[in-house]
Design brief:
Layout: E1 12-17, E2 26-30, E3 44-49, E4 52-61, E5 71-72, E6 75-78, H1 85-98, H2 102-110, E7 125-128, H3 134-137, H4 142-153, E8 157-158, H5 159-166, H6 170-179, E9 182-185, H7 202-216, E10 221-227, H8 233-246, E11 250-254, H9 262-272, E12 276-279, H10 285-296, E13 302-305, E14 317-323, H11 340-351, E15 354-359, H12 364-369, E16 377-381, E17 392-397, H13 398-403, H14 412-424, E18 427-431, E19 441-443, E20 460-461, E21 466-468, E22 475-477, E23 490-492, H15 497-507, E24 513-516, H16 526-536, E25 541-544, E26 557-562, H17 566-569, H18 576-588, E27 599-604, H19 610-616, H20 620-634, E28 641-649, H21 652-673, E29 678-691, E30 694-703, H22 706-720, E31 728-733
Parallel strand pairs: 2-5, 10-15, 10-16, 11-13, 11-14, 12-13, 14-15, 17-27, 18-25, 18-26, 24-25, 26-27
Antiparallel strand pairs: 1-2, 1-4, 3-4, 3-6, 7-8, 7-9, 19-23, 20-21, 21-22, 28-30, 28-31, 29-30
The chain binds adenosine-5'-diphosphate and zinc ion (2 copies).
Binding site for Zn(2+) 2: 452, 455, 469, 472
Pfam family, one: Zn_ribbon_PriA
Enzyme class: isomerase
Length: 738
């Protein structure tokens, strides 16, 4: 019989694999002799699974329940993917929360495989940092005690040297580092930074005091920092991080799209120098390994990154900051469909850490949780630093432009504002949201948009000229004249950034125009180049998608034109109004960041819409109350929870059959379990009904209690197994867009 752990005879490993089965995803494999030395707990390995090779993580070394069909681990992909027990608990939580597999959750946490990295910085020096009476306390761990004694008497050895001197293996040294009895000392020259800090405003002082209070509590705390654009939120972040650092704890700072915000990264590096680690997707494996190692060893105290940096392998986490917490990019599109905000709260709970959620336009869900008695504390920065004015916002009614015979995509006020900037040598930004790729049908004369009578969601135009609701499946054929005003100017609505560029060039020949969207920035580094040219060259107009809505701080920009607020207003999603308010506020915040104040012109066919009016007035609170009453009336989140179940496959008939079977079965489970208040909506074609030759249909589960929904969906997921071989089923708990 094989023996258990340690002692060199760990012959069987329990591996969590990344496979599409629900429920137990860990299986036993034999550890081949040749790999026995190499494989450790949490190693990423490749194993055979139903006829193919898949990746997984070693959870434990123990005996299989059944020796018969046992297979062998094929190879080690990555010996130490920076996982630990705490991150394993986090993965188990994700499994329950997002109805994903444990292997998938671990895969997300560990990130893409770095390989057998050899880049360990062997020269890092270890110093002893034991608590009082540590030696006595280690009476029953003689090896660890020996190491500690050596470290105390002969400081500044590398790990390997220390292990050799004490006559033990590296793991003993590592376990002392984990306990905090030994620390890795920075061998990199530490840059001495003496940045001149601005004197905080009263509001910033107040915010910081609240954050410090929360930190003192040594219990997990969440703070919603609601601050208008330019109110100095980032400065508050920087101070809180310094505080956290002085307590010997690490901070994670998430920003929505790190490659798009070089200015933000620069601010953190200016303040904290090489104590900053940056994690982003375009790093090489070697770079990523080096950064993760610096984080694990405590060399990096400030970790800056996009969504997945929430899984940074910190040793002593004290603070998590989520900037622009309302941003949809914090939710992962692929499995597991986690939200970094929720993961942050969970990690904070594990570490008694503080979470700061910062935004000028908090998500409704978040703001709601920060009101009276909610779990978050609300801290507000209502004014810009130096009391600088917020930009003036002017709304232009495009129906009037049509009435005046102007069929151009630019209204006359926008054209004259642009010419004025060009004359004065100031810069302008033209913004066009392209996220709404689904085609909606709109009347250019009266502004009427075709909507589902049941769901109040814009209907989507399909190829067969039918309009469909992708929440409930309602459908009609596309009208030829406007049902409201009878005009024939009713049609699919769509204009792209390229069109905008052409028009600008026609209107202002010789003007220096730059365009920033997915097409012009596909090459690595091109994003930065375009920005630099626009800023430092004599750029006059920058045209862009949501890419330019965030974080840009260009003092010479005094005009922002929103080419069409309707694109986001009419996305077929119950969050359309919220997205519009957020986008308008955010792009408006790009104007007038310097001495001169800024102007914003918003073009729309729906000038009375409350999301546009409240954005004009910089009035989040009014927006919040109005939108909450809409959500309440239709019972959308935060008054309910949703789970979206997406079916996709090559054959539409198969996809629909699967969706129908699921619909029936879900209803059956609801009845069986006697869970009340759970609705099953659909099946309906998904918002994008076909991607890459695969048809997409969806069901939506709606109910008041998230755990009820998850129970219903989870039960069926397990029962369904792989019933429909040709259809992929994908679950999204609390989807951000449907
Ligand atoms: P936000 O993150 O809320 O948009 P920032 O932190 O970027 O605001 O601050 C806006 C501008 O004001 C930045 O240029 C920043 O350097 C500056 N700033 C922030 N706090 C202060 C302060 N207390 N005194 C002077 N300038 C400040
Ligand atoms: Zn009309
Ligand atoms: Zn509907």
């Amino acid at each position: 019989m094989p023996k258990g752990v340690l002692g060199g005879t760990m012959q069987f490993a329990e591996v969590a694999v990344s496979v599409p089965v629900r429920g137990n995803q860990s299986f036993h494999y034999r550890v081949p002799e040749a790999l026995a030395e190499e494989i450790i707990r949490f190693s990423r390995v490749e194993v055979p699974f139903s006829g193919r090779l898949v990746q997984g993580f070693v959870l434990a070394f123990n005996n299989p329940p059944d020796l018969k069909k046992i297979k062998e681990i094929k190879r080690v992909v990555e010996q130490q993917p920076f996982l630990d027990d705490q991150l394993l608990v986090l993965a188990q939580w994700m499994e329950q929360r997002y109805l994903c597999g444990l292997g998938d959750a671990l895969q997300s946490i560990a990130g893409s495989a770095i390989g057998k990295a050899t880049g360990t910085k062997e020269q890092d020096v270890i110093i002893a940092t034991p608590p009082d009476n540590a030696i006595e306390g280690l009476a029953r761990a003689p090896k660890q005690r020996k190491v500690l004694e050596v470290a105390l008497s002969r400081p500044e050895h590398t790990k390997t040297e220390l292990a050799k001197l004490a006559g033990v293996n590296l793991q003993v040294v590592n376990s002392l580092i984990k306990k905090g009895y030994l620390s890795v000392k920075a061998t990199e020259p530490r840059v001495e930074l003496t940045p001149s800090l601005p004197v905080l405003t009263k509001e910033q002082e107040h915010a910081l005091a609240k954050i410090r209070d929360a930190m003192e509590k040594q219990k997990p705390q969440a703070i919603l920092l609601h601050g208008v654009t330019g109110s100095g939120k980032t400065e508050v972040y920087l101070r809180s991080i310094a505080d956290t650092m002085s307590k010997g704890r690490q901070s994670i700072i998430l920003i929505p799209e790190i490659s798009l915000t070089p200015q933000m990264v620069a601010r953190f590096k200016d303040r904290f120098g090489n104590l900053v680690a940056v994690l982003h997707s375009s790093m090489s494996n070697g770079e990523r390994y080096a950064e993760k190692k610096r984080i694990r060893d405590g060399l990096a105290q400030v970790i800056l990154g996009a969504r997945s940096a929430i899984f940074a392998p910190t040793e002593r986490l004290g603070l998590i900051i989520i900037d622009e917490e309302h941003e949809p990019s914090y939710k992962q599109d692929e499995n597991p469909k986690y939200h970094a905000r929720e993961v942050a709260l969970k990690r904070a709970a594990q570490n008694d850490a503080v979470v700061i959620l910062g935004s000028a336009t908090p998500a409704l869900e978040s703001y709601c949780r920060a009101r009276e008695g909610g779990p978050y504390q609300l801290v507000t920065l209502a004014h810009r630093v130096d009391n600088r004015r917020l930009p003036r916002v002017q709304i232009v009614d495009l129906r009037e432009e049509l009435a005046k015979g102007n069929l151009n995509i630019f209204s006359s006020p926008l054209i004259s504002a642009l010419s004025k900037r060009i004359e004065q040598g100031e810069k302008s930004i033209l913004f066009l949201n392209r996220r709404g790729f689904a085609t909606t049908v709109l009347c250019r004369r009266c502004g009427q948009v075709m909507k589902c009578p049941r769901c109040d969601i814009s209907l989507t135009l399909h190829n067969d000229q039918r309009l469909k609701c992708h929440y409930c499946g309602y459908g009609i054929s596309s009208p030829l004249t406007c049902p409201e005003c009878n005009s024939k100017y009713i049609r699919g609505f769509g204009v792209g950034t390229q069109r905008v560029e052409e028009e600008v060039k026609k209107l202002f020949p010789g003007c220096k125009v730059f365009r920033m969207d997915a097409d012009t920035t596909s090459r690595k580094g091109s994003h930065k180049e375009i920005l630099e040219q626009f800023i430092n060259g004599d750029g006059q107009i920058l045209i862009g998608t949501q890419m330019i809505a965030k974080g840009l701080d260009i003092p010479e920009v005094t005009l922002v034109g929103v080419v069409s607020a309707d694109v986001s207003l009419n996305i077929p999603d119950f969050r359309a109004a919220e997205r519009t308010f957020q986008l308008l506020t955010q792009v408006a915040g790009r104007a007038g960041r310097g001495e001169a104040s800024g102007d914003v012109i918003v073009q729309t066919y729906d000038p009375e819409h409350f999301s546009i009016l409240t954005a004009r007035d910089h009035d989040f609170i009014s927006f919040y109350h109005r939108e909450m009453s809409v959500r309440k009336a239709l019972c959308y989140p935060p008054f309910s929870h949703l789970i979206r179940i997406l079916f996709s496959g090559i054959s539409e008939a198969d996809v629909m059959a699967a969706a129908e079977w699921w619909q029936e079965s879900l209803k059956g489970i609801v009845e069986e379990t006697k869970i009340t208040g759970v609705e099953v909506l659909g099946p309906a074609p998904a918002g994008i009904p076909k991607i890459k030759e695969r048809f997409r249909w969806q069901l939506i589960l709606k109910g008041a209690v998230s755990t009820d929904l998850r129970k219903v969906a989870g039960t069926l997921l397990q029962r369904a197994g792989i019933r429909f071989k040709k259809v992929t089923v994908s679950i999204d708990v609390d989807p951000l867009s449907i």
